[in-house]
Design brief:
The chain is built from 18 helices and eleven strands. The protein is α+β, with helices and mostly antiparallel strands.
Amino acid sequence: MKIYLVGGAVRDLLIGKSGSDRDYVVVGATPEEMKSRGFSEVGKNFPVYLHPKTKEEYALARKEKKVSPGHQGFQFEYHKKITLEEDLLRRDFTVNAMAMEEDGTLIDPYGGREDLKKKLLRHVSKHFVEDPLRVIRGCRFAATLGFEIEPQTQKLMKDMVSSGELDSLSSERILTELMKVLESSGISRFVDELKNCGALSTVFPGFDFTPEAKNELSKLEQSSLTKIEKFAYLFCYLKEEEQYFSQFTIPNQYKKLAKAFCGNLSSIGNDFNQKPSNVLQFFKSLRMDEKIFQSLIELYQLKFPAKDFSKLISTFHELKAQKFTAKDSKEEIERHQLESITRVYLS
């Protein structure tokens, strides 16, 4: 039995990038042998084993055969005679099809290291077209690594889009890829690559990325916004909200911030028309949630860099600190709040 570090972990190690998940391939072992060594078996389609101490993932070397459409339409074969080279052959890009022994020896049967030097994404084999998720992943890697997609590989990606194969992708897998891009600074390039291969509507159905929007994406890339804040910023370029939310299951906290940001853009842009009631309505719509308010300030500062939000921040904290009792009527509470807004925000 031999164990190899594989995939993205090897790629990132060679380019000096840290923080990647470490995945391993085990050659010459059986499920029974893995379990006898204390590994826990997980996974439905094929067994993956968690290390008893580190909980890192170890998979038996395997081959796969396409048996039905979609990302999950594979039949897997794993036994002791499958070689490392056979396992690496099923991977997407050559830069992800390298392995490393415990002593640091690199195994690179498909030229991944040379493509890594060239900053090139090249498919490993003809089997690349069997997994539609590889189109989205290719665009993500190009964006986050700053690599170019090899022309023949890009043609295969376009053909996969044209065939309708991407229609079988689950919204969860697509969102996972998008969230990984949002953790980086490559969203603008990601959009470009999706557009180049015809897959933009798969990831961003109902979005309108105009030239002005592309400029905004550049601002987004240079910001220090969190992943959820970047999603909210993107949300403003969505033309058909119902289409998007019917297709994708978005976490509630993402949806809540996105709607709050986009729904109040006009009011923020025109300073609430200098009306205390408009300011109060804005705060009420947030239910005085400090976390959402702080994220909104970050977003609005990026959207309106020339605006000063210090008075709005001070007003929020003053209203947040106000204490009322059950004896105070709704009208009396609102009167106090409007007085504070007039004094702090409109002074």
